[in-house]
Design goal:
The protein has about 425 residues and is an alpha/beta fold. It has 13 helices and 12 strands. The chain folds into 2 domains: about 325 residues, Glycosidases (TIM Barrel, Alpha-Beta Barrel); about 60 residues, no CATH class. It has a 7-stranded parallel β-sheet with strand order 6-3-2-1-9-8-7. It has a 3-stranded parallel β-sheet with strand order 11-10-12. A two-stranded antiparallel sheet has the order 4-5. Strand 8, helix 10 and strand 9 form a beta-alpha-beta unit.
Length: about 425
């Protein structure tokens, strides 16, 4: 019986990485998609590079858009649905922003009226080009665009929470105008959940768009603090899924684990399969999980320079399209998923104030208490401290017990599996 949870991969082309849009080769793309479909996965997330598609504010290249449609059609031939990220944005340590937003034309990505007009037109155009394709899932506004809005970015585009709220509303509306009724969303890296001064907030992540997306990377201090086989490392993805639910207004809002991977050397290649198996199993124990989309499909070619070393080996498949052990792990999970999980009845109270969200970050009291509960055999979720006595809210989510971080007794350090 097919799983209600979707299993997919973030598509990194084996030839040319995302620069393949400059020399689009449909035969190479088809071979990549064949190797993905052979794993039994059902969707891909694809990444047009914004400056290649919209090199001028009033020029959206028809040839580039046509190539995106051809990729989507090739995916359909292989039974793969497609989610499209629009504003790239940031990928694998590189920023890809059009010249009309930088240096001599420096304008804020989130507040400048002309930039907003250009972004909205671009997102609307991509969505409209795919609106009649049955395998088009919808648009993600961009990949981790929150990294442009605050430190530690070297040249941030500062904005307030209210300005980001308006930006999200307008850009999601543009996607909806282009392709009504599809699954349009936005996605940020975990600073949204962990960094006190991020203008992209947990409430926005959990309330704007068709579902909530989380990106889980244990190089954020989790693996460094606790080790690759620790409870925090193997449950970090599940933690973000459950943490996001505290801010959702819909008791059953779906959550998409849109990025998760096994980064070396914190997760050495020989241990990647075991890490993948544990991460996937724990995420699948989260109710209302929409899907798991692994980062990434194919390794980055060693012929390409200047990537962080971990980026070269994150693929489920090698650069010559051979599946790794962790690919087989994900394939087995997709073909034989577990039954839908029962509700999580114990909730850990988290601060509703985004100015203290670092309490949820690695080393924070919420983070530590959550994993102490997991180590003790609990299956916790989270609830805002402002909703901790809201009977209707708790009942709707199946929560029967609320605990605070200071009520969770310490357990021995490490929490490593025996």
């Amino acid at each position: 019986m097919p799983s209600a949870v979707r299993f997919g991969v973030n598509y990194t082309p084996s030839e040319g990485w995302f620069h393949h849009w400059l020399d689009f080769d449909l035969d190479s793309v088809r071979a990549d998609l064949d190797s993905i479909a052979a794993l039994g996965l059902d969707h891909i997330r694809v990444f047009p590079l914004w400056p290649y598609f919209q090199p001028n504010r009033t020029l959206i290249r028809e040839r580039a858009v046509s190539d995106l449609v051809r990729l989507t059609d090739a995916a359909a031939e292989r039974g793969l649905d497609v989610n499209v990220d629009g504003l790239q944005g940031h990928l694998s340590s590189f920023d890809f922003l059009p010249a009309w937003t930088r240096t001599w034309h420096r304008r804020n990505l989130f507040t400048d009226p002309d930039v907003l007009d250009g972004q909205a037109a671009y997102l609307r155009t991509l969505a409209a080009a795919l609106a009649d394709r049955p395998n088009f899932l919808g648009m993600t506004l961009g990949n981790e665009v929150n990294q442009f809005s605050a430190d530690p970015h070297p040249d941030p585009d500062r904005a307030t929470e209210a300005e980001i709220d308006r930006w999200l509303t307008r850009m999601l509306a543009a996607c909806e105008e282009g392709a009504p009724g599809r699954l349009h969303l936005h996605a940020e890296y975990d600073a949204t959940w962990y960094q006190d001064d991020q203008p992209f907030t947990p409430a926005q992540a959990a309330r704007h768009g068709a579902l909530t997306a989380v990106h889980s990377w244990v190089f954020n201090g989790t693996a460094q603090r606790h080790g690759r086989t620790s409870v925090p490392a193997e449950h970090h993805a599940a933690y973000l899924v459950e943490l996001s639910k505290a801010w959702a207004d819909d008791a059953n809002r779906p959550v998409w684990l849109q990025e998760v991977g096994a980064p070396a050397p914190l997760v050495p290649p020989e241990h990647a399969a075991a890490f993948t198996e544990a991460t996937v199993a724990n995420a699948l124990d989260c109710p209302d999980l929409w899907g798991i989309t692994w980062w990434c499909s194919h390794d980055v070619s060693r012929e390409l320079a200047d990537f962080p070393q971990l980026e070269y080996g994150l693929g489920l498949l090698t650069n010559d399209r051979k599946p790794k052990d962790m690919a087989h792990v994900l394939s087995r999970a997709a073909s034989d998923p577990p039954p839908a999980p029962v509700p999580r009845t114990t909730a850990l109270a988290v601060p509703a104030d985004p100015a203290v969200r670092s309490a949820c970050a690695p080393g924070g009291p919420v983070y530590d208490a959550y994993f102490r509960l997991v180590a003790d055999g609990a299956r916790p979720t989270t609830v805002l401290d402002t909703r901790a006595t809201d009977h209707d809210h708790l009942t709707a989510r199946g929560i029967t017990e609320v605990v605070t971080p200071d009520q969770v007794l310490p357990t021995p350090q490490g929490g490593t599996r025996s």
